[in-house]
Amino acid sequence: MTENLKWQITSNSLEASQLLVDETLFHVANGYIGIRGNFEEGYPNQYNTIRGTYINGVYDISEVKHGEKLQGFIDNKQKIINITDVQGIELYIAGERFSLFDGEILEFKRTLDMREGISKRHIIWKSPKGHIVEINIQRMASFIKPELFVIDYAVKSINYAGEIVFVSTQKGEVSNYFDPTDPRVAGEYEKHLTVEKLDSVDGIDIITSITNKSNIRVSSAVKHVVSAEHELERIQDDQSLTSKIKLNIKDGETQRLIKYCIFTDSIRFSDCHQAAVDKMKEVLEISIDNLYELQASYLSSFWAKADVVINGDDGLQQGIHFNLFELLQSVGKDKYSNIAAKGLSGEGYEGHYFWDTEIYMLPFFLLTDKALAENLLNYRHEKLDAARENARILGHKKGALYPWRTISGSECSAYFPSGTAQYHINADIAYMFVQYYFVTGDLDFVENKAAEVLFETARLWMDTGHYVGDSFRIDAVTGPDEYTCVVNNNYYTNCMAKYNLKWAAKFYELLKDNNRLDSLADRLEVTEEEVREWQEASEKMYLPYDEKLDINPQDDSFLSKAVWDFENTPKDHYPLLLHYHPLYIYRYQVCKQADTVLAHFLLEDEQKLSTIKNSYEYYEKITTHDSSLSTCIFSIVASKLGDIKKAYDYFMQTTRLDLDNVHHNTKDGIHTANMGGTYMGMVYGFAGLRIKEQGIFFNPIIPEQWESYEFKICYQERTIKVHISKNQCNFTLLEGKELKINVYGKEYLLNNDLMINF
């Protein structure tokens, strides 16, 4: 693999099923907008496509139908919507319509360049009549101008002189993808967007639409810039705007159409129609070459902070670059948005935000970009009132319960056993607020945001749990493993709730000691007695333990169930959730994903090493990894236990999950949590990083397949470079004051370069 290919994803497939996957892999996004990698000219009618454009945080509302609706079941849910389609460009050469499925393809390759931030398509096409043209198409969702999407379409004649025609469309008639056989996507057809206004201002074509139930407006604006004199015909109907552009081309000459597209919405702009015009005029003042340079410069700065380098494993290196780039493309960069489970690449899980953000994706941003990490946590603080309301709906008199899946802040999970019952999301969010404090030391953030979230989530645990004798227990919840639902004393939930309660009390004392408490305590009516109850419940939290096996049972009843018959389960019956009734699955010892093993990673100090090892080995045998959130965690814990081979094998599955379509559903969008898991597998797994109240810890290992690996992290206003080779670890303090770090259980002072032999 060449150096360039480590930074590029390429494909030359025209096979129908791979085209659907490539629509995801070659999408472009910037955290605000995302456009799937559809062919501008489309496919033949018999080919399936998921043609989509999305704005992060823009949603409509769908009715949720229950056969038997009980108290507290949701009536409706939010879902990300497919908005105006601006991708369409048809090309005609001497009246023949260009298509990769007609004529003769002499060359074809598509490329996603992760240093330039551009998706490219290169074609040399011979028409049925023998005319040959070279076509180069570039797409960009700008990180500098987040409302901007560009299609840069260049045609070079090889043996033709005459007229060429571009037919460029902007279509307001769109709908969302659905598949009634797959619970991971929408199950029925719905139209969510109605065109409200079509307009043209100074050569800018604008379509403004409104969502049918949430009443959010979205505007798209299109401006065409053509390289030569041309004839323009503008065609309009009730739903679309079409520009027919005719011009001449000479043999050997290149002609170019640049299609500038702007998207705005009424969540962020008081008048999104006017904002689209204004943003377009801003963009048109910058040359296209300068826009490309700004994009590359932005990414150069990003990679300087965030790159993870592996020497000796090119396939993994490509996968790592892809995953980190996709996290950047996916992450919301304002207070109105977060990271959806599929980013902005598709409609899987209907664009909802989950616990994935905090446990799997936020660590990457926390260690590389403090501002983006803070933004993600700010979103949770912004939604705290909605979480309080959600708690009341579920019968809780105090505290806040974050919804399992959401966009605007209310619960969107219609199947409560593996949705709303996952109360652990509260502790997951609290955990990352604490991690943020460890990494930044930002006491202002604790005072203004973090403490309130921890106090309200702690109150929820007190209202959910109860004492049995001298132990605090939590009943009728679901842990991360969605193949085991509504159980008593899920180990992960109890362990994380214990930490949540502990740090709610610690934040109270921290603010009190720094004379920052009174205003918040008065507003929330927090008392010393209540804080003492949090601390006591934390100390007395029941954590299931089996002395004979020296493991932590996943819950009170887990070990009493029969083990799933893996030997006689056909390979084509995975994932189990698509082939077996939930109740059938719930009766067995079978795990969809890491659960207790995840707790052993996040809160490793709760158990001795032998218990962690025995639990890992026990659950490994009964975990299907049907969830993309699983293999990265098993890799991290295998690294901790010194099993480098298994750590590497799990990591390989994690890193190339989307590139190799391991779960066979990449067509529905990327797996952003797994992508965050790739980063964690490197820094928390192989490098053994842990960030705790006591400081920063490393315990590096290196797979035999690698020569070395390295990365940088930001920690308490310092930048540290970590380089691990076969026999040596090197730590370099690039910025900031000296600090103490712990490596292999021994404390060192890092003030410049520190070299430690294995």
- Total strands: the figure is 32
Distance between the termini: 30 Å
Strand fraction band? Answer: 25-35%
CATH hierarchy class name of the domain at 3-281: Mainly Beta
CATH superfamily of the domain at 3-281: Glycoside hydrolase, family 65, N-terminal domain
Outline type: globular
Task: Output the structural class.
Answer: alpha+beta
Number of helices: 19
- Average residue-wise pLDDT: 96
Radius of gyration: 27 Å
For the record, the CATH architecture of the domain at 3-281 stands as Distorted Sandwich
Assign a percent range to the helix content. 25-40%
Using the coordinates shown, work out and report the CATH topology of the domain at 3-281.
Beta-galactosidase, Chain A, domain 5
Family: Belongs to the glycosyl hydrolase 65 family.
Coiled coil: 510-537
Pfam family, one: Glyco_hydro_65m
GO molecular function, one term: hydrolase activity
What this model shows, in words?
The chain is α+β, with helices and mostly antiparallel strands. Among the domains are: 3-281, Glycoside hydrolase, family 65, N-terminal domain (Beta-galactosidase, Chain A, domain 5), CATH 2.70.98; 414-434 and 442-624, Glycosyltransferase, CATH 1.50.10.10. Helix content is 32%, strand content 25%. It has 19 helices and 32 strands. Strand 9 (104-113) and strand 10 form a beta hairpin. The longest helix is centred in the middle third of the chain and has 23 residues, at 491-513. It is globular.
